[in-house]
Design a protein that fits this description.
Elements lengths: L1 H39 L4 H6 L5 H10 L6 H13 L13 H36 L4 H15 L2 H15 L24 H7 L3 H38 L2 H8 L4 H29 L3 H6 L5 H10 L3 H29 L5
Helix pairs in contact: 1-14, 5-6, 5-9, 5-11, 5-14, 6-9, 7-9, 8-9, 9-11, 11-14, 13-14
Pfam families: BPD_transp_1, BPD_transp_1_N
GO molecular function: dipeptide transmembrane transporter activity
Keywords: Cell membrane, Membrane, Transmembrane, Transmembrane helix, Transport
């Protein structure tokens, strides 16, 4: 018994070490890439601070303050040290610390991406399962059309048509922005997620107004998530339905519902976890067009505005957050996959 526990501890220790090593290498690569981008991109961060008409001595002094007069390896070491201490620099555009700006805009993207992913999962998995079960028949054709629509139609067109129909014509949803002007000061920021803050403070009118603004852009993102998830669910389910255990279960007289939804889908759900995680990470990085069309104050819009204004501290800070999101979500999907399927441990 003791030997078994010791062996299990060693296996888990090796697994944890391997995962941590992979994460550490990935983070180092992310830092290196963002550092190189900052040095290669044809934008002078010194001019962004002092202006185009600054004198040579002012320019040189600012360059020294920013540490750009040091060798590259020293600049990289300083950059890594600042990142790990939580210092991403100061935004030229907003005059705030980049960390504070990201804390302000990221919850808006989190709110948008979470609901979009939930829509994609709630509709995409059943659609993919039905398409696999009725392969080549009308449910499969519907799934193909939905997937083709989600992949092919430009997001800006769907967003604009959605605003025209559901906001301007029917008045079913709120317009651009995260909340109506009348409710701007009703909710005190606590978690940063507007609907949660409104619910905590009992501001239910502001809650429903925020919901009316959230549902349409989330549905636009959810359409693309749905197309991706349904396609992958269909592929995984077709593979599982051809396995011997499914044939054996049917021979034993097990109901078709139980075979499909409790056995085949359970096994297909292991790779689906990774698919859902990647879809969520893509939405969390900030859908630039969606946030621009709906005037949504999220991370994607923040990075885009910063890039257009040569605010490199903000661009690199946002890029690091996007990379960290992908690393974290991938790690979480690996852990969940091992918990759901003991064969992968």
């Amino acid at each position: 018994m003791a030997a078994s526990m010791t062996g299990r501890s060693i296996r888990w220790g090796k697994l944890a070490w391997r995962e941590l090593s992979t994460v550490a290498i990935t983070i180092f690569g992310l830092l290196l890439v963002t550092f190189v981008i900052a040095r290669v991109i044809p934008i002078d961060p010194v001019l962004a601070v002092v202006g185009d008409n600054a004198k040579a001595d002012v320019y040189d002094a600012a360059r020294a303050v920013l540490g750009l007069d040091k060798p590259l390896w020293q600049q990289f070491a300083v950059y890594v040290g600042k990142v790990f201490s939580g210092d991403l620099g100061k935004s030229v555009l907003t005059s705030n610390l980049v960390v504070d700006d990201i804390k302000r805009v990221f919850p808006a993207t989190l709110e948008l991406a979470t609901l979009g992913t939930l829509i994609g999962v709630a509709l995409g998995i059943p659609l993919g399962v039905l398409a696999a079960v009725y392969q080549g028949r009308w449910p499969d054709q519907i799934a193909r059309v939905v997937g083709l629509f989600g992949y092919s139609i430009p997001v800006f067109w769907i967003g604009l048509m959605g605003l025209l129909l559901f906001y301007a014509k029917l008045g079913w949803v709120g317009g651009p922005g995260r909340i109506g002007v009348a409710y701007q000061d009703f909710v005190t920021p606590m978690t940063g997620v507007l609907m949660i803050d409104a619910a905590i403070q009992g501001e239910w009118e502001a809650f429903w107004d925020a919901w009316s603004h959230l549902i349409l852009p989330s549905a636009v993102l959810g359409l693309f998530s749905l197309a991706y998830i349904s396609r992958m669910a269909r592929s995984f389910m077709i593979t599982e339905l051809q396995q011997q255990y499914v044939i054996a279960a049917r021979v034993k007289g097990m109901s078709e519902f139980r075979v499909i939804w409790r056995h085949a889908l359970r096994n297909a759900f292991v790779p689906l976890i990774t698919v859902i995680a990647l879809s969520y990470a893509h939405l969390l990085e900030g859908s630039v067009l969606t946030e621009t069309i709906f005037a949504w104050p999220g991370l994607g819009r923040y990075i885009t505005n910063s890039l257009l204004n040569a605010d490199m501290n903000a661009v690199l800070g946002g890029t690091l957050v996007v990379g960290a999101v992908f690393i974290g979500v991938n790690l979480l999907s690996d852990i969940l996959g091992r918990l759901v399927d003991p064969r992968t441990r």
